[in-house]
Amino acid sequence: MAWSDTFPGILKDNDVRLFGYAGRPRSVRATVLLAVLGLIAAAKPVAAQDWPRQPIHVIVSFGAGGGADIIGRILADAMQERLGKPVIVENKPGAGGILGNELVAKANPDGYTLGIMTAGQIIAAVTRKDMPYDTAALTPVAQVASASLLIVTRPDFPANNVKELVEAAKADPGKIVFASPGFAATQHFAGELFKQIAGVNLLHVPFRSSPEAINAVLGKHADVLFDTVSALIGQVQSGTLKALAVTGKDRFPAVPNIPTAIESGVLPGYDVTTWYGVFGPPGMPAPVVAALNGTLNDIIADDKVSARLVIAGVVVKGSTPAEFGAFMAGEYKRWNAVREAAGIAQQ
């Protein structure tokens, strides 16, 4: 191909009309041409270069020891081993996950700053009036895991299943108290959706953490608790707490003998899970997203990694970037509708 075909109007086959160098010796013209080509090569987008070439930072928008942190570190360990580059986890908690998400949203979209997304961050977004970033503009990379919640009560509470809980709530509206480990947490909105589908009035009391909420139920300051399997499985297995149902549409592998809420027959369509995925800043190059997605799906398919995820209380669930993006959009729409129906004003 002639140079003029590549750079029309700038270079001709036998002449370089560039920066006043026409007519110069061939060696000078060649030097200039190589310099120009070097600048063009340097200006190539990240997508056209090999990735990764430097450490990758994974922002976890919650504190150390929580579900997102555990999942993030399992993924980071496996990514580092597979990619041969350091993968550094940074905890940036605050504002229900919005603070950490903002750091990712404003980072360079080159594939070296990623975040762990959860259902909680989507719910935090629907409860905020003014967001520091556009949730819809974030780059979805892959969903990696999901987990059901449990609905539990104390052993002496009269209801032994979801149907009996709904019957008790209808017989005594507003008297049964349900606890959650935080206002606008996934667990809180799981309770609000329960109320809406069942047509009952439960009083919500939020606490600052799962241990506080558990103690409130045991101390009879609350009657029912919605929380993660990992937070409650020890108390359920020991008989300290009584499990009424799991919130997902399918039974959960860690507690296979506990029925789903749907199985009660009084909560049609009730399906709540907490989930985990990886996202990046807006505008990430498609080839980098594809490389990341492939890496993550390969990682969670590895037996050793999936075993660590199961121990962490989740089940493996991969996706394409498009699938994860559509899923997050659906979650936003769904939880915003629950917020509106519950009369929860945006703050």
Explain what this protein looks like in three dimensions.
The chain has 347 residues and is an alpha/beta fold. The chain has 12 helices and 12 strands. The strands form 2 sheets. Strands 3, 4, 5, 6, 7, 8, 9, 10, 11 and 12 form a 10-stranded mixed sheet that branches. A two-stranded antiparallel ribbon has the order 1-2. Helix 7 (186-198) links the parallel strand 7 (177-180) and strand 8 (203-206). Helix 3 crosses helix 10, helix 5 packs across helix 12 and helix 7 crosses helix 12. The protein is globular. The chain starts with a helix and ends in a 5-residue tail after the last helix. 40% of the residues are buried. Mean pLDDT is 88; it is low at 1-24 and 30-45.
SSE blueprint and pairings:
Elements: H1 3-6, E1 11-12, E2 15-16, H2 26-42, E3 56-60, H3 67-83, E4 87-91, H4 98-105, E5 113-118, H5 119-126, E6 139-153, H6 162-171, E7 177-180, H7 186-198, E8 203-206, H8 210-218, E9 224-228, H9 229-238, E10 242-246, E11 273-280, H10 286-301, H11 303-311, E12 315-316, H12 321-342
Parallel strand pairs: 3-4, 3-5, 7-8, 7-9
Antiparallel strand pairs: 1-2, 5-11, 6-9, 6-10, 6-11, 6-12
Helix pairs in contact: 3-10, 5-12, 7-12
CATH-level-4 superfamily name of the largest domain: Bordetella uptake gene, domain 1
Number of helices: 12
Strand content: 15-25%
Structure class: alpha/beta
Provide the CATH top-level class of the largest domain: Alpha Beta
Indicate the percent of residues in helices.
40-55%
User: Taking all residues together, what is the mean pLDDT?
Assistant: 88
- Tell me about the biggest sheet? 10 strands, mixed
